[in-house]
């Protein structure tokens, strides 16, 4: 084919090994270091400040079995191991879940504005939590109360309803999913508003859930959620090929060898499972699932093979740091922090749209 | 003579009760270059959907490389037939080389991604289609002509023996139309790729394609070289226009 003179002049130089975009492993390494720093800082920050050296020594002593000279008190060890560590790890786990789910929903719905809550999981979880606060029944299994249970089930039930309803009618699957998600979400939001109106003194409890926080993080809750989120995230990453095919649209994906209807069903289920587990233990934390995948795409491009693992690391780091900031500011809800940090950051990205990246 | 690479036998097909193909038989041999022509709604795109397994025929049989299409999964089909995507609307900023790389999806290791052989095929496709000067650019910023070439490069990277295009020259200016056509001829003649293209421009079809298949009302009404298919009476009957609007060039050789 002829070379077009005018395009040759404006073309960027051939990409080859230069720039961070072509070195994803460097980013993974950077992300892991950021996570480790977040872990040490996150454990150190609080009413009792703990030196990074002590934090590392306690962790090495307890989890690696290193025989180190004890320079810390038993109380310090309890604070580190039983109180702060599960909190920091929960923040990371939830951040990972929301960012991976967000990347999945964006790719699946081919919509840059999608987030983990777009198909009604948030409203479902919120209504479930509100109902749990209102009904006079209390029980605890593995430290999971009615609130966590109903939030988890509410999220899954709403997305199942959305998926089933979206298959009725003649709209294209994607439009139908989005519109059904919006409709069901609105209906559930009305239920939530009603529950909050009726809640009286319990309103604050519902409100706290809606804002999201890691105050309630414990080892059993973390350990019960860990396998769900890890399994779902890894399973999504193993289906990166399907998300890549869907970049071109559903028909093109089918021509590239992807069983679109099946992959859509599986990916929806996995991303919803991760989201439901995350919102059950931490409430509704916004912005992570929307912003992190976009930031990652801005750096490494749209391939799900890179976007998913880097989003997992980025989401984990973002929420761990946001929680540190929240605690430093006297325990304000972490959801407020992510929005306050996330919104300007997102606007910054949108400004960069002029120089290459567009939503 | 080996089995036809694409073979439709007495195929009927319907979208939601509406029959759009009636008893269509079409046999395509390896290395052929075929233009599917016909008015809007004649069933051209439906025929492609049936031939690529996106739509199950209500009657008849489809075979790819001699194998019934029911016995092939999506990946098997994608390794036999590459379809140049129509009107792609990318949701995220995507570079030219990232789009071309998607052509390797049917071949790449599902867990580990692209291997050296895949990277080689991507580079070869970029070279073959001549889009090397576009590397690094966001596909959404390209002109329609450039974008079409990138999508053809994607299909070439797929390394399937059959290349299918649905109106590849729509929205393109004349120069880009001719360039796209010349590329298809070159892929067909030099690489031996079987090319099947739905075309609206009868002059282009007649000039660049040795075999034309004319569809009307879901049936094949003519099949052969341009001089036999595009006779004035048939143009009037099928397209409802004065045949003097259509100039059928006599292909050289």
* Average residue-wise pLDDT of chain A: 84
The coarse silhouette of chain B is globular
Strand content of chain A: under 5%
Q: Give a count of the beta strands of chain B, DSSP E runs of length 2 or more.
A: 10
Number of strands of chain A: 0
Radius of gyration of chain A: 22 Å
Q: Describe the biggest sheet of chain A?
A: none
How much β-strand is present in the residues of chain B? 15-25%
Helix content range of chain B: 25-40%
In angstroms, what separates the terminal alpha carbons of chain B? 24 Å
The main β sheet of chain B shows up as:
6 strands, mixed
Instruction: Name the helix and strand elements of chain B from N-terminus to C-terminus, one letter apiece.
Output: EEEHEEHEHHHEHEHEEHH
End-to-end span of chain A in angstroms?
Answer: 32 Å
Spell the H/E element sequence of chain A: HHHHHHHHHHHHHHH
Poorly predicted sequence stretches spanning 5 or more consecutive residues of chain A: 1-18, 354-359
């Amino acid at each position: 084919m002829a070379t077009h003179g005018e395009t040759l002049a404006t073309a960027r130089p051939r990409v080859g090994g230069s720039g961070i975009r072509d070195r994803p492993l460097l980013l993974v390494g950077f992300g892991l270091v950021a996570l480790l720093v977040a872990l040490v800082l996150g454990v150190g920050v609080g009413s009792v400040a703990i030196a990074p050296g002590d934090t590392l020594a306690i962790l090495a002593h307890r989890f690696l079995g290193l025989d180190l000279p004890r320079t810390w008190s038993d109380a310090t060890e309890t604070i580190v191991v039983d109180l702060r560590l599960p909190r920091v790890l929960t923040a990371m786990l939830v951040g990972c879940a929301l960012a991976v789910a967000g990347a999945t929903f964006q790719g699946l719905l081919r919509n840059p504005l999608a987030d983990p809550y777009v198909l009604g999981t948030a409203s479902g979880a919120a209504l479930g939590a509100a109902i749990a606060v209102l009904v006079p029944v209390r029980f605890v299994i593995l430290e999971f109360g009615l609130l966590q249970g109903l939030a988890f089930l509410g999220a899954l039930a709403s997305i199942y309803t959305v998926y089933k309803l979206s298959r009725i009618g003649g709209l294209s699957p994607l439009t139908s999913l989005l519109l059904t998600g919006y409709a069901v979400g609105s209906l559930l939001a009305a239920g939530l508003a009603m529950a909050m109106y009726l809640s009286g003194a319990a309103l604050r409890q519902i409100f706290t859930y809606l804002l999201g926080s890691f105050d309630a993080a414990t080892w059993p809750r973390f350990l019960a959620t860990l396998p769900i989120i890890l399994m779902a995230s890894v399973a999504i990453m193993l289906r990166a090929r399907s998300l890549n095919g869907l970049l071109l649209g559903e028909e093109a994906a089918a021509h590239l060898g992807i069983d679109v209807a099946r992959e859509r069903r599986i990916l929806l289920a996995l991303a919803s499972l991760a989201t439901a587990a995350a919102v059950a233990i931490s409430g509704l934390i916004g912005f992570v699932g929307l912003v992190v995948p976009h930031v990652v795409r801005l750096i490494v491009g749209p391939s799900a093979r890179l976007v998913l693992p880097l989003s997992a690391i980025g989401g984990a780091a973002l929420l761990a740091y946001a929680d540190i900031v929240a605690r430093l500011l006297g325990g304000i809800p972490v959801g407020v922090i992510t929005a306050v940090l996330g919104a300007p950051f997102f606007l910054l990205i949108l400004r960069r749209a002029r120089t290459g990246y567009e939503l | 003579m080996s089995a036809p690479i694409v073979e439709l036998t007495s195929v009927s097909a319907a979208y939601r009760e509406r029959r759009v193909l009636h008893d269509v038989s079409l046999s395509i041999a390896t290395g052929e270059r075929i233009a599917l022509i016909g008015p809007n709604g004649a069933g051209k795109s439906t025929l492609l959907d049936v031939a690529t397994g996106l739509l199950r025929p209500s009657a008849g049989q489809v075979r790819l490389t001699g194998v019934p299409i029911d016995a092939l999964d999506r990946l098997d089909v994608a390794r036999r037939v590459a379809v140049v995507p129509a009107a792609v609307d990318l949701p995220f900023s995507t570079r030219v080389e990232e789009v071309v790389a998607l052509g390797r999806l049917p071949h790449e290791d599902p867990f580990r991604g692209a291997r050296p052989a895949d990277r080689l095929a991507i580079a070869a496709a970029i070279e073959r289609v001549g889009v090397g000067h576009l590397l690094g650019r966001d596909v959404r910023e390209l002109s329609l002509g450039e974008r079409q070439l990138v999508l053809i490069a994607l299909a070439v990277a797929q390394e399937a023996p059959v290349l299918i295009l649905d109106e590849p020259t729509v929205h393109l200016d004349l120069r880009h139309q001719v360039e796209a056509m010349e590329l298809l001829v070159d892929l067909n003649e030099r690489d031996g790729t079987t090319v099947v293209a739905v075309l609206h421009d009868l002059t282009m079809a007649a000039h660049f394609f040795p075999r034309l298949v004319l569809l009307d009302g879901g049936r094949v009404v003519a099949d052969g070289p341009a001089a036999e298919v595009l006779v004035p009476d048939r143009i009037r009957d099928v397209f409802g226009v004065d045949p003097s609007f259509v100039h059928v060039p006599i292909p050289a050789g």
